[in-house]
Design brief:
mainly alpha, 5 helices, 0% strand, elongated
Length: 162
Amino acid sequence: MKMHQTKNDTPSNTKQVSIELLNARLADAIDLALITKQAHWNLKGPRFIAIHELLDQFRTAIDEHVDIIAERAVQLGGTALGTKETVSEKSKLTAYPTGIYKIEDHLAALIDRYADTANAVRKSIDEADEAGDADTADIFTAFSRVLDKNLWFLEAHVQEAA
């Protein structure tokens, strides 16, 4: 992939590692954003409005981090890869079931995918740090905090019987 010249003095090997990490997490984040809306639109049950609105908040937060992640890849001289083809090919998340409706089924599916994303982002913090890119590690750290909080919110809905 073409690298663009930049006066950013991050070493080129560090840039390459970071751009690859950023694009990997970008694919996951875009996929998670789409999954979140899929659940938001289709869930059914007695807690509908509360979870429907919660998922809208989650989507807004993910979108903010998607933009930050993509822009960092470009800042380092790379290309942000956010097309549907790239996301479909590169996302590490399992496909979201489109035939579910019960809130409990959506919560279970979302919990799995939020956990997978959060765990991958946490691993990327360490990988970016090891590569010598504290700024990219910081971007992943901020995203990790949001994902962990949202995962907690989701898990809290299923940890105790009503």
